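step=predict obj=Threonine synthase n=471
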Amino acid sequence: MIYTDTRDKSVKVNFQTAVMNGMNASTGGLYIPVEFPKLESSFINRIPEPSFREVAFNMAKPYVEGEIPDADLESLIIDAYPFTSQVVPVDPVTYVLELFHGPTCAFKDFGARFMARVMSYFNRNENDNLHILVATSGDTGSAVGSAFHNVPGIDVTILYPDGKISPLQEKQLSTFTGNVRALKVKGTFDDCQKLVKTAFTDTELRNKFRLSSANSINISRLLPQSFYYMYSSLVVKNRIPQDSKIENPSIICIVPSGNFGNLTSGLIAREMGAPIAGFVAATNSNHTVPDWIATGNYEARPSVSTLSNAMDVGAPSNYERISAMYSLEQVRSLFASYWTDDEGTLDAIRSCHSNTGYIIDPHGAVGWKAWNDIRGGKMAELINGTLKTDINEPGLTANVPEWGKAAADKKAVGIILETAAPAKFGATVVKAIGREPSMPERLEKVMSLPDNAIPMEKDYESFKEYLMSSL
Ligand SMILES: *Cc1c(COP(=O)(O)O)cnc(C)c1O
């Protein structure tokens, strides 16, 4: 596969270059494949549907062709995914896609574990280790740390702001041993990010060590997230005849979004033939993208903090990919877009629980709220002109997507992406429903491990000295 650049279509690189560079430093653009090959219809229409790993293999294959042989790709996928995504029906037209069955209980495990194994594969003939530096304000660090833990040929240094992340998040970051270490920096997330950025431009350091980053713009984190869209849409398609008996239903994926990497992966799956009619882009009070869809003006802004904090992004990095792949008109016909505030999020946790018995986390709750409104009559009101929309008020934006009529006529089913285990946000869940979600064993276990984080000043010289003496 050839990869090009969102800012310069004359760029042509292979998968290894796109992965190892992360982004194109000379243009500031992001890598995207030049095409999204469709899967065979015999594969997509197979009954029963293929397994998650079969889907993963068949979807990954064209993107690594000529660079990772089939047998290696197959073992890479088996190693990356000892867990899977789970489709849970909660009412006849609503499915929750649980993406939290990986080691850190959040969907980022799907992308990070694939990326880690791909990087290790490309590093296999090098004598020196590859050093990954990552700054985190919470969940990315644990997914990346866990994904690279014990992966051969790679060391990871995670920087996080001391005292500014939750106790559970801190445990998930700081208790690694071996090739993954955490530095608790006396400063903010921005200080952490600055240390990492400075290190990447430090020639002395770069001459001594092979450095790389692992952030969410890497194409090898995005591609694997498309696997669970394909897999779940096939599972749901095959279940609909029993569950809701709707003929030719439109399958809609509702995606709680921050940086919009997850939603971009959904677009890739749809391009590759997944039976997905469209998407709901659901955000919290950081509604940069809904506003863009409503007004046509993209205005990045500082983030505000909310109960769904992994979505607190004011300048979503994958806006650049979405707008390179589609025109605004295409986006408006593919997506409904919706945002809600903290009050709406608590309300959604409550209504999801009382209507279905399902306990949803604050991120998934943003998606539930959007879907519940859309199928509960808001899309019908939008179509017949009785819904007032205002970009400064929570709710739908004014565009009616191509699948809007199907949703208004109750001929649509929703797949809500549940991006984290509710136990990671126990206090918010208790506030909403007065009840503690059950704690997965792997989260309980991490709470009792010793903290190995190394204290670090926020000045670059101390950080550099540490790297020079300990890598
Ligand atoms: C990162 C994250 C999101 C947002 O995903 P994007 O790809 O950045 O849109 C949503 N929920 C949880 C729990 C996350 O960790």
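step=describe
The chain is about 45% helix and 15% strand.
step=end
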